[in-house]
Amino acid sequence: MILTIAAQLEKSWEAALKRVQACEAGLAQARQIDLVTPVPDFAGIATDLEAAWRAPNVDMRYRQQLLRALATDTIADVDEEQPEVILTIHWKGGQHSQLCIRKPESCVFR
After folding, report:
1. What is the pLDDT of residues 51-103, one digit of tens each?
2. Which residues pair with 97 in a beta bridge?
3. Which of 2, 33, 56, 103 is the most buried (most CB within 10 A)?
4. In the chain, where are the structural domains located?
């Protein structure tokens, strides 16, 4: 009986080790792919972001991609006394920007 339990434990241990090895191999492969993928260089855009944003061949989809690449987080805070929404944008470089937008009359937040 004890030998059967020990054999089952050893079998389970070997199966778990194989799963760990497969996960490690997958992780190593994923890390290798990440190293090959080029990181976009936004240094040129930084000098004139407004021109890049307003360029005639740039549609809303590209603008959204640009924002996703530059911002990590956006927080909206509703000020009920002053009917406005305060947006705080956390940029990837560690900077923060705030933007106050007047809340439309028909807009109700709960």
Report:
1. 888 888 888 988 888 888 888 899 999 887 888 889 999 988 889 999 998 88
2. 89
3. 103
4. 58-104
